Amino acid sequence: MTGLKVRQAEDLGPQFVKNPHRMVGQDGAFSISLDDGKALWFFGDTLIGYRVPGDSLWYINGFAVGADDMSGRGTIEQMLTNTGLLLPDQDAGTGLKNYRYILNEDGTLRSLVPLLADEHPSQIRVWCQHGVQLNGKLYLSFIKVEMIPQSEVLGTNEKGEVLPVNFKVLGSGLAVGDAQSWEFRRIYHNGSDILWGPDDPHFGSAIFPDFEEKMLYLYGVHLDQTDRIQKCCLARVGFDDVENLAKYEYLMSHKPQWDPRVEEAITLFIEAPSEVSVSYNQHLGAYLAVHSWRTTEKIVGRTAPQLWGPWSEETVLWTAQIDQKPLPYPRMVYAGKEHPELSRYNGKTIFITYIEFEEYYPHLVRLTLE
Question: In Å, how far from its chain's centre is CA 88?
Fold first, then answer.
């Protein structure tokens, strides 16, 4: 038993639709609390242009967009990665308002962790994960992926159906900068910005700072190639050692016991995609993890007495209400997570977002727990 039950739920709709930048879709939507009381919202692929009513966002002239950069194709003028906005108002009762996108000097949306000169978006992309602000530094987590051309795709979901965009994960890493200049540099280990490889958990899916212990806990999800199950693991590192990969330890048992070898990391829970949130919920008197259930309409929650568990079985918190009009590809819902800085009444009321691939805006839901 989890003790986790939803008493009331309200769908607050897609967010950031009305914006002055002609932004017509973005995913990811991780939120990071900042020292000044604001929150940084961190996004993945962000599309600039306009939509044609009735047309799929992911099919241009009848063909799947595939691996190619969408900039200049169809009605999409530009595709960016890792954009962000500042949300000063934490009252989300009727939706997210008064937000301000982080911009370049010319007024265009800024990519916080931009691609390098040798990273073309038709081959390599860097997508946002979570982040944390420590000692005046802002750390942003990312996954690095290799795009797969449509001609090489044999089927990517459990039914063997082909999605309009396909990729394989190369690994995950961290970038460090500040919340004034918004300039970030990637952290390297042995000459590589990939700190955890393709078979490792993608640490930084969720980051939890323990300010009493001065210890940072990083949750990471990976697909186990043996049983094809998504598994979530846990790493930790001291605040002063975030940029030193050799200082990281990985949970090897729930006692808890830690080991410097990532291959010893145990599974906390399963079937979370690469996006997840972890917070301490005072109302529940427990830690709360929220994630999508695979890429279905279900958003689930789990509780645990400690950051490392043991974690309960999943409880369905919300089932996304999706427009069931036919699509030229299998429908996908993903990126479910909580935004704990928005919570009310010590966590009795929480706010979650998810992404439906065709809608392609963060969709906000308010939940009141028993």
Answer: 20
C-alpha span between 370 and 365 (Å, rounded): 16
pLDDT at 225: 85
Residue 332 inside a domain? The answer is yes
CB of 354 within 8 A of CB of 335? Answer: yes
Q: Residue 161 has what DSSP assignment?
A: P
Q: How many domains does the chain have?
A: 1
The tens digit of pLDDT for each residue in 38-61 reads 999 999 999 999 999 989 999 998
Pairing of strands 363-369, 277-281: unpaired
**pLDDT score recorded for residue 322:** 87
Q: Is residue 123 part of a domain?
A: yes
Query: If you ran DSSP here, which 8-state letter would residue 362 be given?
Result: P
Owning domain of residue 129: 6-369
Structural domain includes residue 1: no
Torsion of CA 9, 348, 30, 271, to 10 degrees: -70
Residue 108 within any structural domain of the chain:
yes
Cα 63–Cα 64–Cα 68 angle in degrees, nearest 5: 110
Predicted local distance difference test score (pLDDT) of residue 219? 98
Read off the pTM: 0.96
- CATH number of the domain encompassing residue 359: 2.115.10.20
Which residue ranges of the chain lie beneath pLDDT 70? 1-2, 154-161
- What is the C-alpha separation between 155 and 161, in angstroms, rounded? 5
